[in-house]
Every structure is written in C-alpha cells, then in structure tokens.
C-alpha cells in the first residue's frame, strides 16, 4: 500500500521470518536426533517458504475481512474470528503436507528418507509459528495502525499546523499524501474486487463450466497416459550440466558400447601368491569360466 500507516512491509517480512524459523527449528531438531543431512535436504527451505508465505496470505486476508466486518471490535474478537476462518484451511493443508512427507519416510532410499523427515518436521514447525508467532505480529501491526504510527519508524503520524509548511516529499513519506491530509483507510483490495466482480461470474457461466469439465477430462486423460510412460531408474547423463565433458562421454558410451551390456569386474578378496604359476593359471581359468 502507498499509505505510510497501512503499509504492511514488516508484516510480510515477519511472515517470511516465520518460515525461516521453522526451517532452523526443524533442521536443528533433526540434527540433534542424529538424522543424516544429505544434499537433497538443501531444497527443503524453498518448499517451506512457499507454504509459509501461502499461510501468511491466508491469515492476512482473514484478518482484513474480520477488520472490515468488526471495525470497532477489540483485538481478541478480531483475532478469534481470524483464526476461526484461517486456521481451518491452514491446518488441513499442513496435515496433508506432513502426511505426504512422512509417508515418504517408508522408502528404501536413505537420502529420500532424510529429505522427507526434514521437510515434514519443518511443515509442523511452520504451522506452529504461523499459529503463534505470526498471530502475535498481526496484533502488533494492528496496534501500530490504530496508533496512527509510521510503518518504518513507528513514530506517530499527526497532521497539524507544522505539517502545512513541509515539502510534498516529506508529507508523502511521513503522512502518505502530498495533500497534507492523512491517508484514508483503503477499501477492498483490487484483487478481491476482480475475483468477485469479474472472475466469479465468468467461471459460473454454464458454457464456461462445460468447457472447464472438458478441459479437465482432457488433462486427466493425458495424465493417465503419461503415468503409463514412466520408466524407473535414473540416467546419469541428466545429473551433469549441459556443457559438461561428461555429456559426450555418456553419449558415446550409449552409441558405441550399449550393445555389450554392463561391465563385469572380478575382485579377489584373499591374499594370493601371484608368483606361483599354478595360482595364476587358476585365476585365468576362473576368468575364462566367467566369460
């Protein structure tokens, strides 16, 4: 928002901080419990950030709606109504994510098991911080707005005779308007207006609904066909950069040597007297039998 009072930069920053705290807490707990940290776990913070920011938007949207309905209510009733609306969706999405990743711990691959443990635990901490830490930040931000305080300095923004002599830039930064009048509370968010007035009526049209069903049927059919084309395994060629020297090696190996099958090696684990001719002949005979 352009208003220096209604601006929610710190609120959004605390939402991102909440996800970071969840990552730190989960990683610390898993490392304390001795769960191995593998390189794939380094991707987990990006997943947690996405879910945490999504929960943040749900909480803020519910808070704004509660504020519009009960503008003169106390903070307790506002926060209670916010949790009544937002906590259900946040809880269900968290439960499904946690369940999905904890089921992944049943896999036989240790690296995947570690990744699922770290990420599933991070989702739990993300939920806890959203329901506690971020809720408290919502209340503090509301008190700052109620006190007519600047979003950056938290200093009280007052309009008086001394402000009339200040420059337009000063008033824009410290009041939120060049007109030397305090900025008025904004109405409904433009995105909400778009979905309510335009997108909602559009998708509820009977022809659009029919088109949606047909498109989903085509999508579902393509997905089922794609599942039948899945091949298990991993191609080592896909693990290297496109400009790596490994790529031509794997291409040539596939082109010229794929018909020979995998290479077989024989390892002798015992001490052998290679100077003994009969032992050497025995090794040669063993190799010929294997061939």
Automatic annotation (TrEMBL):
It comes from the Eukaryota. Residues 1-140 form the SSD domain. The keyword Transmembrane applies. SUPFAM superfamilies: Multidrug efflux transporter AcrB transmembrane domain. GO terms for cellular component: membrane. The keyword Membrane applies. Pfam families: Patched. It is a multi-pass membrane protein. Gene3D superfamilies: Multidrug efflux transporter AcrB transmembrane domain. It is found in: Membrane. Keywords: Glycoprotein, Membrane, Transmembrane, Transmembrane helix. The chain crosses the membrane at residues 9-38, 44-63, 83-109, 115-140. Belongs to the patched family. This is PTHD3 protein. It comes from Donacobius atricapilla. The gene is Ptchd3.
